[in-house]
Amino acid sequence: MTDDDIIERILTFEGGFVNNPLDKGGPTNFGITASELGQVRGLGRAATVAEIQALTKADAAQIYKDKYITASGFEKIANTGLRLIVVDSGVLHGIGRATKWLQQALSVPADGQLGEVTLNALNGAAGAKAGGGVLALRFKFIGQILKSNPRQVVFAQGWLNRVADLIQYA
């Protein structure tokens, strides 16, 4: 699986333009939020709904590659199934949280930085089980979200289907 394959898989999960008032991210297109698009484009503000609607799939793919694979350091995860799990977790729940989940699954200090200790641990015995560990932590986090904000239940099936689909790569 290539990084382009990973991005295509994420884009399949994310779909197109959505403007659900219950979504804390506000309007999104291909999973890219207004605040993220504004930041990436250096607008000094969140993108407008029209700017979000005009976002192309190619632009979204480039944002995913630049931010969630390259800048995050996730490109250094050699196991591409695990890379997909961690990148997708970063897209949905933040790069820092995804990195901490990976570190917890590897039993290394969870500082949110993908450094030498974490990358070395990927080569050990824990590395083979890290994908399942990340997904287990993600399941727990979804439960915490739903407990603290029951109105988010509208998104639960999508979140859970997405995690369930990723189990095959663990």
Folded structure, characterized:
The protein has helices at residues 3-14, 34-40, 49-54, 57-71, 80-93, 95-106, 116-121, 130-148, 153-166; strands spanning 28-29, 32-33. The chain is mostly helical. The chain has two domains: 1-71, no CATH class; 79-170, Chitosanase, subunit A, domain 1, CATH 1.20.141.10. A hairpin with a 2-residue loop joins strand 1 and strand 2. Helix 5 packs parallel to helix 8 and helix 6 crosses helix 8. The longest helix is centred in the C-terminal third of the chain and has 19 residues, at 130-148.
Q: Key terms for this structure?
A:
single chain, mainly alpha, Chitosanase, subunit A, domain 1, two-stranded antiparallel sheet, 2 strands
Average pLDDT taken over every residue: 94
The percent range for helix content is: 55-70%
Question: Helix and strand string, N-terminal first?
Answer: HEEHHHHHHHH
Low-confidence stretches: none
Give the distance, in angstroms, between the N- and C-terminal Cα atoms.
Answer: 14 Å
Strand pairing plus helix content: what structural class? mainly alpha
CATH superfamily of the largest domain: Chitosanase, subunit A, domain 1
Beta-strand fraction estimate: under 5%
DSSP strand count: 2
What does the largest sheet look like? 2 strands, antiparallel
If you compute it from the alpha carbons, what radius of gyration comes out, rounded to the nearest whole angstrom? Answer: 16 Å
Number of helices: 9
Q: Can you tell me the overall shape?
A: globular
CATH topology of the largest domain: Chitosanase, subunit A, domain 1
CATH level-two architecture of the largest domain: Up-down Bundle
CATH class of the largest domain: Mainly Alpha
